[in-house]
Structures are given as C-alpha cells and as structure tokens.
Amino acid sequence: MPNTRSEGAMKEEDQTPTDPVQLMMAMMKEMKEEAKKREDQLMRQLQEQAQDFAAALQTNRGNAGGSTKSKKMDVPVLKCPEDINLADFRDWQQRFADYTEVQKIMEECTLSGRQSLLRSGLDPAWTKLWSTGILEIDDRKDDINDIIKKILHYIREHRNPLLDRKEFLERNQHAGESIDVYYSALKSIDESCGYDVNPTCKVCDDACGHGDELQQERLRDRLICGLKDQAIQQKVLAIPFKDLTLKKALEVCRVEAASKETQASLNKSERQVNRLKERSSYKKGKIDNNPLSKSAQKADERCSNCGRKKHQKPDQCWARDKDCNNCGKTGHLKHMCRSEPKKEVNRMTIGQVKTSDDLVKITAKIGNADHQEVEWLPDTGAECDVITADCLKKVGTKVKDLRKDKAELCGPDQGRLKSLGKVTATLEREGMKYKTELHVLEKGTGPILSKAGCIALGLIPTGWPHVVNKLSLSSPDEGNGVDMLLKSQSAASIREQLFQEFPEVFPPDDEVLPLKPMKGPPMKIELLPGTSPIRRYRCNTIPLHWQDKVKAHLETMVQKQIIERVPQGEAPEWLFSMVVVPKAGTDEPRVTVDFSPLNPFVKRPMYPCRVPAEEVAQIPPGMTHFTVLDGRHGYWQVLLDKPSSKIMTFNTPWGCSVT
Questions:
Q1: Rounded to whole angstroms, how far apart are CA atoms 659 and 641?
Q2: How do residues 321-378 score in pLDDT, each as one tens digit?
Q3: Dihedral pair phi/psi, residue 181, rounded to 5°
C-alpha cells in the first residue's frame, strides 16, 4: 500500500523529541504556556468583575466647590470573617487593596465613602469592635489603610505567636502538593510568627539585613525537613552545608520533582506500549512472554531433583536423601516432583512430645501377645494414635506384621511423616478400655495418644474443651449471712439465680433496657487537617430473607440507645454504607458499616499495651487453671462525643442512623 502521508506530517513526526531531557524541557515549556493562559484568563475575569463593581458603585466625588455626584455603592464580595488568622488576613488585605485599586476608590470616594466600603466588607463582629471603639478607629481622619493596620495590630495582640510558630515547625509537605505551593505556605506562616524581619544586629548595631538571612535559614530548614519525598530530601542534604542556601534548595527540589514527574509519564507510556505489543504477539502466536515458558525452556540447565543449577555429577545433589512431601519418594523435593499432586484424604495431624512430666502409663494389647506398660503423651491436638517402631516389641508385634497404612500423617509443622503401617490395639488404663488403630512411625520421640483416646481413657471430660455441666462456687466470707454456696448445682440453676440477682444486667427476654455506658470520657475521633466530608448515598442491597431480622436488630440497637435515627429532613454531612454479611458458620445476618473511606483521614490514637510475655510474667506461681473472658459487643458501651457521632452516620433502607 503506498505511503499517503504528506511531507509536512513526516517532517513534524521526525522533529518529535525523543531524548528525556528534551522531552522534559518541552513539557516545562507547555506548563509555562498553560500557566500564562490561566493568568490571562484570571486577569480578564478580574477586569470584568471590576467593571461590574464600578457600574454598581455609588459614592460622592469631592470638588473645590463642594459639589458632589452620587453613585450606587455595592457591598464587596471580599468578606473578612471573624475568626481569621494573621496569614489569611494579610491575604485578604492584599485582595482588598487590589479591589480598591481597580475601582479607583482612593481617588474617587470621600473618606466616609471609603470607610463605608471597608465596613461593608467586614464581618459583623469586626464592625461591632469598630463601633464600640475597641479598635480605636477615628472616623474623622483614619483612612482605609490606617484602619486595616489597626485591625492587623489587634489580631497580632490577641493571638499567641507560639501557635503560629508551632504550626510553622509542624508544617510538612502534603501528598500531591508541589514544591512551590509548599514553600508559599511556609513563607505565609513564617510572616505570621512575629519574628522581626530586620532586627538590629547585635554585632554591628545596625539594621544590616541579618534578619532576612535568619528568615531564609528558617524557611530552608523547614522546607528540607518537611519534604515528603525522601529521595529528594537526600539529594538536597548531599549538598555541602556552606553552599546550601534557600535558593539552591528550591532549585534542586524543583528539578528533582520535575524529573520524577517526567520519568513517571515516560514509564506510563512505555507500559501502555508494551501491553499492546504483548497482546498483538499473543494473538499472532509468534512470541510467548510468559516467564514460566522461559523457565521451561531452560529446564535442562537446572537439576531435576533440587531445582538448582545442574550438578556435574548426580551424586552431588543435596536432595538425593530427601523425601518428597508430595509423593513420599526419596531423591527429590516437592516443588520438583513430577507426580500428580495427591488429594489430602485422611490427612491426620500428629503432636510432639515436649517433657516427660506429662507422660501417662497405658497398657497396649495386640491379640494374645505379651505386653507391658508404655508411656504415652496425651495430646488433644492429635487426630490419631501413634507409636514408634522401637516400641513395637513392648506391645507384642513386629514391623512385618503391620498392615498397609493409607492415611497421610502430618506433624505439628504440617510436614509429612513416613508411616511403616498400622495395627489394631486395645489400650487400657485404670479399668477403661479403648480400641484404636495405632499408626507406626519409623522415627519419633514416643507414643502419642489422640484427643479421642484421652476422652475414652478418662484423661479429659467428654465434650472438652466445652463448659462443664457442674459448678461449685463459694463465698470468701461465709460469715456475712449471704448464702453463696452453690456446690453441686447445675449450670441451669446457677444461671437462673444469677438472672434473678442481677436484673439490671440480665433483663427479661421481652424487655429491652438502655445499655449502660462505659465509665470515663467519651471517645473523640480526630481528623487530619483539610479533611472533607465523605458521603455514600447508595444503600447496599439486603437479601429479602434477612430484611426483617436486620430491621429488628436496628430497632433493638435504637432501644438500647446504641444508635439513634437522624431526624426527618436533616441532611447528614458524613454518610457511610451499611454492609450485611453472614455470621461465621451460620446463615444469620451480621450488621456492619464500611468505614474504610474514613480510615486514611483519622489520626491514629496510641494506647500502651503490655506484650503477652509481660502479661504471663504477672501470673502468680503455682497457678494451673486459666480462664479467658470475652466481652460481647464491648464497643457498644463506648460513648462517642457529638461531633464524632455525626462523623459515623450510616445509611439503611429505612433511613439514616448515627452511632
């Protein structure tokens, strides 16, 4: 097919920069042109707004004869709020000065007109301070600039400079924030910290400009310490300290940040091109970029037994004496096994002997053979009874008499154990008998008795580790007149007595009482600065057979004062989605709320907690029985303060609720 592209298009394509440096310069040039366009657009908008204000402005024009002309004066849109800080007020002051300059208010308005214009741009709280004389403003001679200076002085006197200095020292670069924006924020905060810009030098007793140097050092140090990218930070710190000025640090940061953005853009384009190439090659069937296929092509370069580099001699392979955990054969490892993976049928776990103090003497009988007592380890984690080959003589049998064992035996580390076979035996202890299949291991630390054997021989109660059906309680002080002896009573009777004795804890089934809150101050959720409210209006679908149960559960939580409904017509500022999932092992619904979008913006509180080793060290010596108590729905009793409660608002098919 002939080439139909024009010579101009081909020439333009040939001039496309391919060098990364040229590409970065081209991108920076485009960014500069876009910034210029945005600046021109903002200037046009400002001029249009100024023309609108000039058309609506009404004031008095002074002249020598005292004649005046009246225009309509409109309230400026640049409002100064009541709780403004020093940095924001300076920004408002600059914008208000630009507004007065564009409107030519200083030339065309009288003193009272200029004061009225400024008063209309202030919050009512500031006008009250003005009218009551707290700002010490003289309406007869103070102009706009004088009044603004007095407001600035008032803000400075009523704000502790340490708060601004603390904010300056803790200001770090935010995620996605450019170097220039970060530096501008630092400089704005520094100007509000109350440092003297040109203090009198203690060395030369003159305003020599050392104050500017101190300010640049502060900005340089805070700029470097607050960088989010550690690679850029290390690049700046590599500069000798005597050459590291604020200007130099800013240049390095800008160049490194621009380089990273360019590299990321190039990598993104390269990944997209590679993805297209792989797809087309796969469809044509010419190239297979699958790493597994490449490794298969080099299989002859690896040892077929251990998977490492091929040995010069077969007997040099370290896996020649190893047993495969897949097929059980000797001479190769599991990941190099060529047999089909076996299904884990009759997989049994075997415990391990730790000490000799826990061993129990049990008699094992096999047919009419001679037998003797053997020490067994009761292990409730074992699923089968195991005996070693060296103990077979004690129970009256030999290895050649064993039957084939098809069960797959695993140790406590899930490693495969080699079984020589199995034999039927009867275990006896204190008149109790237990018939079982003994699995014989080639190696081991001794016979192991399974959980079923422990129950059959009376070593542990039936149903262990569940609750025992009999309890025995006694009061430490039996002379107080209260009969607390509940010896040999059933668990049901004790439960009924506890319900009667503590009705505020165990109310009747048909009565729902408010849940008692936990003692202490309410919990407060602190958000990171600049966090915007999150709203998830979509309500997740609840299966039809769960809807009645979920609704009843929410009603119960409302009656217990765990949650409360949002009033009808009130629009919540924060809103998250309720998620209903099945409880583990049952088909009952479990009500949860998806707060994952909120988690990244929450300050993580730190609570000191002892490690398990410290907890165990606090147990008095000689203790043998231990109990673990788990509080059911423990977080329901933790109160939330009002702002935190509104943050955790969630939606349901029947309306919104807050915790």
A1: 10
A2: 888 877 778 888 887 887 766 544 445 555 554 445 567 777 777 766 666 677 888 8
A3: -65, -40
Residue ranges, comma separated, of all CATH 1.10.1200.30 domains in the chain are 163-260
What CATH architecture is 544-658?
Roll (3.10)
Pick the CATH number of 163-260 from 3.40.50.800, 1.10.1200.30, 2.40.10.330, 2.40.40.20: 1.10.1200.30
Written as one string, the DSSP assignment of 261-300 is HHHHHHHHHHHHHHHHHHHHHHHHTS----HHHHHHHTGG
Residues carrying CATH 3.10.10, the chain: 544-658
Contacts of 260 (CB under 8 A, 6+ apart): 229, 231, 232
pLDDT at 12: 46
Higher confidence at residue 23 or residue 273? 23
Give the pTM.
Answer: 0.30
Q: What is 347-456's CATH topology?
A: Cathepsin D, subunit A; domain 1 (2.40.70)
> 561 Cβ partners below 8 Å, 6+ apart?
514, 515
Lowest mean pLDDT among 71-85, 390-404, 449-463, 505-519: 71-85
Residue in 94, 98, 100, 132 with CA at minimum distance from that of residue 116:
100
- pLDDT value at position 623? 80
The tens digit of pLDDT for each residue in 285-313 reads: 444 444 444 444 455 578 888 888 888 77
135 neighbors 151 (Cβ within 8 angstroms): yes
Tell me how far the alpha carbon of residue 109 is from its chain's centroid: 58
